[in-house]
Design a protein that fits this description.
The structure holds 2 protein chains of 2 kinds. Chain A contains 16 helices and 4 strands. Chain A is mainly alpha-helical. Classes of the chains: A mainly alpha, B mainly alpha.
């Protein structure tokens, strides 16, 4: 019986292999080139066996994965690999006091020493990864907590970067004339950009309050793209497509830092802001507002019936998400010292969204892990660079199909009623 | 006046181009309430397939009309196969999951297809040879409308009539309407909804392929990225007319085409793509159900 099933699986996989050979034949085997208005085709026959083998293997894996997915309901969620590892680690930490002290210390030490040990290149890579962690944590408030899909998130990132850039562009020369170091502006921009972005978030959310789900995603996408076009086309204010260059690095007691020292300095600023973000986001998650947002994500109508103000909630969601993007934008401007509209395309928004989805929507460790994986892997696997987007897309589909809660799923706070001497089952509130 | 007429005609052509893609969008949305983000990519693949087979057949020495016919048929076959496969792989397993999951999966498919074509073919813009015939009877009005524009208009009109008939008067059309209204109930009365959804994807993708060939011939170029902005605009058109409604998609496409054409003609050409998005924002805030759409009540 069982053997029969396997044979059937293989037969089906072979059929699907043939189907994919047929499907991908024109695009993968034939290669078109157009010279002087006449198209000609060259054949790459050696791709056929490749496609066939990959499709048969993929099909078998897929079948197995779908079956595994279907049985997920039957399995004990407490027994899955991820949860077991998490439980194992926490049990180990509980028992081993020394490890409980040493491990976090080692971790913190590694984070602090990273820019000192590694070179400037790696420090810069890490800084941009950390900036993305901030972005992703901010988007996680909108998507993970509020359940509102925002595809125009890069616009808030741009608002932050341009707040700093424009502030410098329009007041910097004057400040320098008066004798004040314009790199001071970084520290002014940091909170300012957050609040400007927050304002934009509120403005954006006003017209979209009535919308939900996919309409919301599309309208935010439209906002993001329009914002970028405005940046690109209002050249006299924003510098147009060429953007703003020579933005000063942050002020450090008036000392002119070498690029390497400046990178280390920005690394520490970014790291502390990321830690601050994590702290705030955690506090939000467990607050009254956070609970209300989660209720809204689960069911808008039921949530409204419980007396939660949906309009206020949506405003808060967008504003909070936008704030962090604005702050991250200032860091980006300070790190690269150069900004232009091309850094804030829709793909930027989608990249952040991918990080959130792959890592685990709503889960702070998941989002951080997802971002680090997405931003750091391509840096260290240069050979795969051209396949990067393809692999991201595939990863996104696979995660959403088979593990829709992400690589490190969110763990909900559980409350257990413990009644002494009673035999009643454990209550989950 | 002449300038106005020119803008009107170019807007009409644009509108019928958007309509060809928007029809597929609206059909899929009407049946399974999914924004098929990958629809624009199917259209791009249709265009590429026709280019590839057209180039191959032309180099074999076949005459242009035969090349056109065979390459369009093959483009339709391949686009339909892609649509069918995508639905099976990425959308069917998510049918009973939250709608955002399917949307994210659709974005993933869109990224995968774009980058697949980028890697398998080329990242450069390719000139698109047109095999469409020249129509001599258009000679007197040729400063307003050329043969390609004329063919696009006719094909769009024919397809719209065909689709309306299909949905209204055939068995499969009835099954589609039933599936759109209530999937569970449709299944109870014996509609094979898997089959219906597959067929919807096949028809929608075929339309996208026809659109791809015509539009690329009109624009004269193709690139792996053309599907994205075309898809967004077609979606705007579909929403504008009321998503899920076939006459709505066509009406919305024409309104969008005219707005873009007059907007760029009289206001500013820097913001061509922004007009579509501005209209989208306006419509969604003022009348989310679209021009011809029905207002749907939210139920718990």
């Amino acid at each position: 019986m069982k053997q029969n099933g396997i044979l059937k699986d293989i037969a089906q996989a072979l059929l699907q292999g043939l189907w994919f050979v047929f499907l991908l034949f024109p695009l993968l085997v034939m290669k078109v080139s157009v010279v002087g208005g006449v198209a000609s085709v060259t054949f790459r026959w050696n791709n056929i066996p490749l496609v066939f083998v990959a499709a048969v293997g993929g099909s078998l894996l897929w079948r197995w994965a779908l079956r595994w997915n279907e049985q997920k309901g039957a399995r004990d969620p407490e027994n899955s690999l991820g949860v077991r590892i998490q439980n194992g680690v926490s049990a180990f930490l509980k028992q081993n006091r020394l490890a409980r002290v040493v491990l976090p210390l080692f971790f913190i030490g590694a984070l602090l020493a990273y820019p000192l040990i590694s070179g400037m290149y790696h420090t810069n890579v890490m800084i941009s990864a950390l900036i993305y962690v901030m972005l992703a944590l901010g988007l996680n408030i909108v998507v993970g907590l509020g359940g509102l899909l925002n595809l125009g998130y890069a616009a808030f990132f741009a608002v932050g970067a341009y707040t700093y850039g424009l502030l410098w562009k329009h007041t910097g020369p004057w400040l320098a004339q008066v004798g004040i170091d314009p790199s001071w502006l970084f520290w002014i921009s940091l909170p300012l950009a957050g609040f400007v972005a927050l304002l934009f978030g509120v403005l954006l959310s006003l017209p979209v309050l009535r919308l939900r789900g996919d309409y919301l995603a599309i309208i935010t996408l439209a906002f993001g793209e329009i914002f970028r076009m405005v940046l690109q086309n209002s050249g006299d204010i924003t510098g147009g497509a060429t953007g703003i260059s020579l933005i000063p690095r942050p002020w450090f007691f008036g000392i002119q830092l070498t690029p390497h020292m400046a990178a280390i300095y920005i690394y520490y600023i970014t790291l502390s802001l990321v830690v601050f973000t994590i702290f705030v986001v955690r506090r939000i998650e467990n607050s009254r507002v956070g609970r209300a947002l989660e209720a809204m994500r689960e069911d808008e109508i039921a949530c409204e019936a419980m007396g939660i103000d949906l309009v206020k909630n949506k405003l808060i969601t967008f504003a909070l998400g936008a704030f962090w993007a604005g702050v991250a934008g200032v860091l980006l401007a300070a790190q690269t010292t150069y900004i232009n509209p091309d850094s804030f395309t829709l793909w930027e928004s989608i990249m952040v969204l991918m990080a959130v989805v792959i890592g685990g929507t709503g889960s702070i460790p998941g989002v951080i892990a997802g971002t680090l994986v997405l931003k750091l892997l391509p840096e260290y696997f240069r050979a795969l660079a051209q396949y990067r987007m393809l692999l991201y897309g595939v990863a996104m589909i696979i995660v959403i199909l088979f593990k829709s809660d992400g690589l490190i799923p969110r763990r909900r706070t559980e409350y257990r009623l413990e009644q002494e001497g009673s035999t009643s089952p454990e209550g989950h509130l | 006046m002449e300038y106005f007429l020119k803008l009107l005609l170019s807007g009409t052509t644009k509108g019928s181009i958007y309509a060809l893609i928007a029809l597929g969008y609206t059909m899929v949305y009407g049946v399974i309430q999914l924004i098929n983000f990958a629809h624009g990519e199917i259209y791009m693949i249709g265009g590429f397939t026709a280019l590839i087979f057209g180039g191959f057949l032309y180099s074999m020495g076949l005459p242009a009309p035969v090349v056109l016919l065979i390459s369009v048929i093959l483009a339709i076959v391949y686009a339909a196969s892609f649509g069918f496969t995508i639905e099976r792989i990425a959308y069917r397993p998510l049918r009973n999951k939250p709608r955002l999951s399917a949307l994210i999966s659709a974005i993933g498919i869109s990224i995968v297809l774009q980058n697949f074509v980028l890697l398998a073919q080329t990242e450069k813009y390719l000139a698109y040879p047109s095999y469409l015939p020249d129509l001599p009877f258009l000679q007197p009005v040729k400063q307003y409308i050329n043969a390609t524009q004329f063919i696009i208009l006719i094909v769009t009109a024919l397809i719209m009539v065909f689709l309306t008939m299909l949905i209204k008067y055939t068995r499969i059309g009835k099954a589609m309407r039933a599936t759109a209204q209530d999937k569970d109930m449709a299944q109870l009365v014996g509609v094979n909804i898997n089959q219906v959804i597959s067929i919807t994807f096949i028809i929608g993708s075929s339309l996208a392929a026809i659109g791809g060939v015509l539009i690329c011939s009109y624009m004269g170029q193709i690139n792996y990225y053309i599907g994205f902005i075309a898809g967004i605009k077609a979606f705007v058109a579909a929403v504008l007319g009321g998503i899920g409604s076939i006459p709505g998609a066509v009406l919305g496409s024409f309104v969008l085409g005219w707005t873009e054409s007059f907007g760029t003609g009289y206001l500013s050409s820097d913001y061509e793509d922004a007009f579509a998005l501005l209209i989208l924002i306006l419509i969604l805030t003022v009348k989310p159900e679209g021009l011809l759409g029905k207002n749907q009540k939210q139920k718990v």
